[in-house]
Structure to design on (786 residues):
């Protein structure tokens, strides 16, 4: 067993109102630069819908993610190592920018500088951010917002194609009145990332400490294999710098113990951040299980119970400080995924073991209950609707459980039971034991789950231990091991002749060496020489 | 003049080639990329890029064969002069045409497609011009002189001079008798090498062969100290003492 910690996210979709605040603040923070105009590290889609980029879930077309070969071994859907290198000159699976959308800007000067006394109202014209030419807006990252244009495009949703024909036909028929919900998406920071595995130059990596998947901008050579290999299409080409970029899970904030910017600014307070312990050695086997319906349970089995003393012992042995163990125990993500089992991964059938999970929305089902003339506050009516009106449930199952309707229905029933239980509890103080028995949870658990999902206090939604405490813990261990001076141990900062910041930070090897910037100073990679600012402008 | 062109210039260009690469590698990792524009335009690239790259690999291989392998060696291993000539001329013609077609497609793409035109840097334009000049000269030498014309045995003159450069004994007189197109191609070749480190061509040295035996998922430890959180508004307020009356 090799224990690792992963910062993971859960989103409670029932609370998403589709306001795009997360997308906007993310864009302001990370992708408001040349070459990233079309890039949304965080985007909010309306489902059913074809998504951003268009039809990204159709892996027959894009060949993203993993699949099992004839011998049952896990391999990238786009091919193995030799095949990949043979496609360096042109990548047949790469989406074009038109599959995202052509980014536009507006010449607002026309409005600002319009002279007084015009007979006609001045109009600002959209101009392509790619060519500078005037253009017509025909698509965008949220073009289908709230089912806009769904009568034209909606049937192209790859999830409908995978549903049973009769259920899919009913979705098509009742499109506007059946259901819709919003699906905010960021990088999944997978346990078995296909993008990292497809990167020819080894520039993409998963961080050992917190599992965040990043692109090393200095080592990326622009082979653009990560873009097509990611089944969620959450790695992008910056066509200005020629490098790949992706959601960073706001690692500078996470390291400082703060939630990501999308979470921090989420109006619906539907995002949860916390750490999950997992066994790195179990990842490959879990991603390779034969039956797609078993992937959910297999991934849950990779996670380690932070309350288990043996796991805690292993975590300590791996050098994790107590603060991280405590955070893992309090982790809302762990509770929603593994204790309450109400969170589900997005498209587990891609076999990347994604780490952004979703509490599926009950609202489409409730709408269906109301439409069927039933009582949407009555758990029994909801249960029956879930069972009989298979449309929303089958659709949700395609998204979250690789088409396993029973698994999705089970989660929805838990959510419905929690509502009815809390209604009875609040209105007349009764404890609905039958509901508890039906979902196999205790009263305490349901009430705690209710508190986490409905009250959703800031401190309970975000349990993020700061990264620097890991270094602090190592220093502390060093201090207790030495009687006289804590810094006097072998290799300690007190032993070196030039005691300086250079030898102080407990990093793996000689990286990050401060020095006077400018002529012949030491650069970040430790070598001496002129320093050129890589962030200088221009393409 | 002979010495200047056939001795000083090659060394000058090689020094720039090596020093330029060292400088670029150390100081511009961020700019060291293929600068892919496939997301912006795919239709012409799908044909042009493989043609160009495969052609270029063939052409480079042909130059290695013709310039670095002495005629005595090919004879010793049983390849007749005639067989070599056939291979060189036809191999050179086919790969050269691939390279040229690919290059033309890629240049058309740069000019015609507004999106790609806009991300084309000045250095890209210089590179395309240099590549085009080199390819045209090379094709005239291969097709014009060796295939259709009377032929010229560069292996007795140019190749000997070229190898001499690396033994530090170049004989410039070997080059004075070469046809003009060969002379220009040789000079151009060295100038092209000098240009190389400053263009996107550096991505050639990053050909990701290590991918063939590397484990799929790469793990790395975080570098350097973690940042500390900036003070929240509450902390700033509390640090300033009693909360003052706020609007």
């Amino acid at each position: 067993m090799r224990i690792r910690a992963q910062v993971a996210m859960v989103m409670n979709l029932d609370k998403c109102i589709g306001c795009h605040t997360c997308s906007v603040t993310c864009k302001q923070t990370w992708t408001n630069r040349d070459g990233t105009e079309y890039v949304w590290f965080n985007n909010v889609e309306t489902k059913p819908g074809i998504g951003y980029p268009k039809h990204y879930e159709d892996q027959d077309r894009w060949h993203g993610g993993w699949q099992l070969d004839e011998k049952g071994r896990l391999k990238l859907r786009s091919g193995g190592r030799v095949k990949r290198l043979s496609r360096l000159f042109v990548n047949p699976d790469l989406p074009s920018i038109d599959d995202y959308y052509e980014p536009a800007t507006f010449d607002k000067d026309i409005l600002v500088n319009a002279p007084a006394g015009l007979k006609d109202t001045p109009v600002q014209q959209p101009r392509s951010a790619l060519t500078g030419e005037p253009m017509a807006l025909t698509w965008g990252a949220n073009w289908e917002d709230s089912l806009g244009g769904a009568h034209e495009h909606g049937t192209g949703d790859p999830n409908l194609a995978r549903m049973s024909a009769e259920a899919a036909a009913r979705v098509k028929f009742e499109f506007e009145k059946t259901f819709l919900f919003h699906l905010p998406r960021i990088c999944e920071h997978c346990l078995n990332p296909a993008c990292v595995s497809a990167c020819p130059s080894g520039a993409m990596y998963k961080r050992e400490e917190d599992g965040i998947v990043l692109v090393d901008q200095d080592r990326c050579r622009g082979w653009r294999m990560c873009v097509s290999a990611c089944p969620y299409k959450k790695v992008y080409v910056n066509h200005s710098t020629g490098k790949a970029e992706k959601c960073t899970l706001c690692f500078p904030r996470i390291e400082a113990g703060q939630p990501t910017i999308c979470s921090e600014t989420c109006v619906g307070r539907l995002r949860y951040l916390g750490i999950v312990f997992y066994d790195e050695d179990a990842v490959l086997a879990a991603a390779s299980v034969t039956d797609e319906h078993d992937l959910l349970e297999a991934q849950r089995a990779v996670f380690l119970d932070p309350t288990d003393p043996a796991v805690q012992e292993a975590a300590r042995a791996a050098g994790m400080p107590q603060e991280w163990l405590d955070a893992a125990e309090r982790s809302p993500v762990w509770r929603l995924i593994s204790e309450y089992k109400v969170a589900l991964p997005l498209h587990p059938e891609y076999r990347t073991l994604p780490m952004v999970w979703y509490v599926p929305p009950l609202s489409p089902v409730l709408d269906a209950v109301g439409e069927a003339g039933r009582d949407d506050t009555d758990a029994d009516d909801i249960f029956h609707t879930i069972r009989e009106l298979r449309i929303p449930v089958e659709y949700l199952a395609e998204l979250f459980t690789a088409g396993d309707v029973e698994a999705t229905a089970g989660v929805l029933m838990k959510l419905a039971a929690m509502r009815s239980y809390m209604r009875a509890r609040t209105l007349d103080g009764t404890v609905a034991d039958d509901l508890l028995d039906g979902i196999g949870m205790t009263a305490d658990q349901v009430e705690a789950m209710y508190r986490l999902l409905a009250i959703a206090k800031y401190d309970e939604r975000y349990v993020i231990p700061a990264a620097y405490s890991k270094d602090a813990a190592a220093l502390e261990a060093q201090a207790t091991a030495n009687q006289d001076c804590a810094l006097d141990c072998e290799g300690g900062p007190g032993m070196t002749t030039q005691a300086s910041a250079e030898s102080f930070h407990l990093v793996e090897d000689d990286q990050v060496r401060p020095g006077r910037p400018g002529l012949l100073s030491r650069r970040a990679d430790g070598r001496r020489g002129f320093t050129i600012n890589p962030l200088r402008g221009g393409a | 003049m002979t010495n200047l062109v056939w001795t000083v210039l090659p060394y000058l260009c090689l020094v720039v080639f090596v020093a330029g690469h060292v400088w670029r590698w150390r100081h511009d990792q961020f700019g060291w990329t293929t600068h892919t524009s496939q997301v912006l335009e795919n239709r012409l690239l799908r044909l042009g890029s493989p043609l160009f790259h495969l052609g270029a690999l063939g052409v480079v291989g042909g130059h290695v064969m013709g310039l670095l392998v002495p005629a005595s060696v090919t004879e010793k291993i049983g390849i007749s002069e005639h067989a070599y000539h056939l291979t060189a001329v036809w191999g050179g013609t086919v790969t050269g045409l691939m390279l040229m077609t690919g290059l033309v497609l890629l240049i058309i793409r740069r000019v015609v497609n507004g999106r790609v035109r806009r991300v084309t840097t000045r250095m890209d334009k210089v590179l395309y011009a240099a590549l085009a000049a080199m390819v045209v000269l090379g094709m005239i030498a291969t097709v014009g002189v060796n295939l259709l014309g009377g032929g010229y045995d560069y292996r007795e003159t140019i190749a000997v001079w070229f190898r001499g450069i690396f033994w530090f004994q170049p004989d410039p007189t070997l080059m004075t008798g070469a046809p003009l197109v060969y002379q220009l191609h040789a000079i151009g070749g060295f100038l092209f090498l000098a240009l190389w480190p400053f263009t996107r061509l550096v991505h050639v040295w990053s050909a990701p062969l290590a991918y063939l035996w590397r484990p799929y998922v790469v793990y790395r430890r975080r570098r350097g100290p973690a940042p500390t959180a900036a003070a929240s508004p509450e902390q700033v307020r509390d640090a300033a003492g009693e909360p003052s009356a706020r609007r």
About this structure: The domain at 2-207 of chain B is CATH 1.20.950.20 (Fumarate Reductase Cytochrome B subunit). Residues 81-112 of chain B form the longest helix (32 residues). Chain B touches chain A through 55 residues (CB under 8 Å).
